[in-house]
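Hi F.,

I've been meaning to write this up properly since the lab meeting, where we talked about keeping a consistent format for the predictions we share between groups. The idea is simple: the sequence comes first, exactly as it goes in, then the structure tokens exactly as they come out, then a line or two of notes. No screenshots and no reformatting. I'm using this chain as the first example so we have something concrete to point to.
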Amino acid sequence: MPVGSLVGIAMLPPAGDPIRLVVRDGRLHIGTVSISCVAQKAWKSKIELPLDPDLVTVLRLRFLYPPDRLERAGLTRRLAKAEEKAGKLVTRAANILKPLNITGSDLVQMVQDHIRRGMETK
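Output, unedited:
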């Protein structure tokens, strides 16, 4: 749906209270205005997160939902950024722990185990 159409409707909403919204034949009808749209069931795309989730909560999404569901929920980019941040943290930690022969791979495995353990207790 074109964003401009929604802005126009918001600026000059249809008369009446309540305003009736109907999706029919590939169109969203708002009062007497109709706009082409694609209907999508909310339960298929909705993934609830806290308002400001911590890094582990976002990383856990990879283990809880398939990629297509994350995409529909609009969380793919957010998850990628979280994974990038976690990767940088693991790299820094591996450099610090190198004298103890602890590798980045060891730390990645530890982080994944930690995330999975947290899922079992939730």
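Notes:
The longest strand covers residues 21-24.
The CA atoms of residues 43 and 73 lie 10 Å apart.

If this format works for you, I'll send the rest the same way.

G.
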